[in-house]
Amino acid sequence: MRLEPYLQFASKAFQREATYRVEVLSEIGSLVLRVYLIRALWTALYAHNPAPPNLPLHAIITYSTVALLLSLIFEVDGTRQLREKIRLGTIATDFLKPISLPAYLFSDGVGMTLLHALNVVPSLLFALLLVHVDPPATASATGAFLASFALGYAVNFLLNFCMNCVAFWTLETFALQLVVRWLSDLLSGAIIPLAFFPGIFQAIVLHLPFAAIYSTPLLLYLGMIQGPQIGRALLEQALWLAAFAGLGALIWSRGRDRVVVQGG
């Protein structure tokens, strides 16, 4: 497969997203406001409750701020257009094009993500006016965080891809995505660190695919995963990535055959 067309798709997506300047500015403003509210919330909670031994106030504020910055990237869903293509029937013509549609969706999503990733810089600078954000604990934590972030991004893309592929059978996936989004927000550690979950429940949610998106990169950033645990955490993310890749390939194959049969 030639990479040049997909690099062009990513470039076009970046340029397309860059035209919405007001949306970019409002996104930065919204994130800064959420950082302020998160700081106020955790400060109030920690003032009236004992702090967990491994998550003092400065660490939880860092965790929540970095999670909000990551949300600028993870909330970009380049696969949503797949649902629209299926619902409108235009996917039939896409199958005639000499490209891989899943690869196109990924490259288009990467292009959109790159613009939102650039928003991280001004968002962080404004956030630093309100809160103190600790840097990664060590150099190895930085490398592990970046590797984990890349794996989490891929898992998130494939999860969205699988959900939108359901439209081959239902034409609409809004309700499914709403439920999965709610579960992801709750169980990924994006809002509340999974370290706050009790006992056996914490042990379970830490090994769900949602944790591979947010919790694992964030815990690596804070240095709460160390030594041999780093390799195990990255391996678990890679296993979820492989599982969703296999599931996505199966659903895509069945869905594509369904379109061909109906169109024939």
Number of strands: 0
> Overall pLDDT, averaged?
88
Strand content: under 5%
Distance between the termini: 28 Å
Query: Could you list the spans in which at least 5 consecutive residues all have pLDDT below 50?
Result: none
Give the proportion of residues in helices.
over 70%
Q: What is the number of helices?
A: 13
Gyration radius, to the nearest Å?
20 Å
Oligomer kind: single chain
The biggest beta sheet is recorded as: none
The total tally of domains equals: 1
Overall 3D shape: globular
**Helices and strands: which structural class?**
mainly alpha
What order do the SSEs take from the amino end to the carboxyl end, as H and E? HHHHHHHHHHHHH
Structure overview:
- With 264 residues, this protein is mainly α.
- The model has no long low-confidence stretch (mean pLDDT 88).
- The chain is globular.
- The chain has one domain.
- It starts with a helix and ends with a helix.
Overview in brief:
The protein has helices at about 5-20, 20-50, 55-75, 80-90, 90-95, 100-125, 140-165, 165-170, 175-185, 200-205, 210-215, 215-220, 230-264.
List its salient traits.
264 residues, mainly alpha
What order do the helices and strands come in, and which of them pair?
Layout: H1 4-18, H2 21-48, H3 57-74, H4 80-88, H5 91-94, H6 101-127, H7 139-165, H8 167-170, H9 174-187, H10 199-205, H11 209-213, H12 215-222, H13 228-263
